[in-house]
Amino acid sequence: MQELVHQQHGIRGLEGQDEPPQHPCQCAQRKYRVENEDSWGFRQFWAPEVVQRDGKFYMYYTARWKEKDSLRIGAAIADHPAGPFIDVYDRPMFDFGYAAIDAHILFDDDGRMYMYYSRDCSENVANGRFESHIYGLELADDMITVQVEGICLCQPDQEWEMKSLSRGQQWNEGPFVLKREGLYYLMYSANFFGGHDYSVGYATAKHPLGPFVKYEHNPVLVSDREEISGPGHHSVIASPDGTELFIVYHIHMDPALGGGNRQVCMDRMRFREDGSIEVLGPTLSSLQPVPSASAVQ
Q1: First CA to last CA across the chain, in angstroms?
Q2: Where does the record place the region Disordered (predicted)?
Q3: For residue 125, what pLDDT is reported?
Q4: Chain centroid to CA 235
């Protein structure tokens, strides 16, 4: 049995609470179990994303494949969001001959489904260095069958994405896709996840698989102060009434140290009149207005 551990802490309080928290919110740890003693993965279980369809919950996760000692994406299904999640295969979802991580699913308006992921820099050499590129593909109707090979949608090529060149590596990873007024927004993170310059940008296209054009004023979520380090690898959620958007992302617990010890933060996000994305953060305030139409507990 392998376990995917998902722990959230450090989420900022909300105005209107009877007793605002004196410390960052400490959420209970949940262990999402992949019920398979012979799991194809053996370590580095991370970046799970869970989506719901027809009463079932589908988890897409990253793990290191025993057979090839390489990172891949797996799928597991449960009847409840807290599991147990049962692996659907005794292997990764697909093997295109390279490391793949950070799966994200888009349900399009026409009923078609797409997976976005990162071709990991651990096994991808481009432009004379190790690079992570974002790929996409269409999923079959069962949500677990990959029928075609992924295609490259974007790779590091803007100036702000060159902050980690001294490591001999560059990143476009952690994809998240929104659709608004017929336009697809591919949001992603760039630079080293353990460093201060980890940030979020986006690209747009008229088709879910591109071609995507990067926003000329990227990044849209970036730290400009010493107290906040590495805001990135995010998701986007809506308020209960659907009128507000929030970007949920991580920063380093110790901004001076960086690394893999991180906390979860949340700020408002919106679209400007010209369709560009604006993130109202990262913020340092401990209290923010309650999301629109949400009940105060």
Answers
A1: 37
A2: 1-23
A3: 95
A4: 6
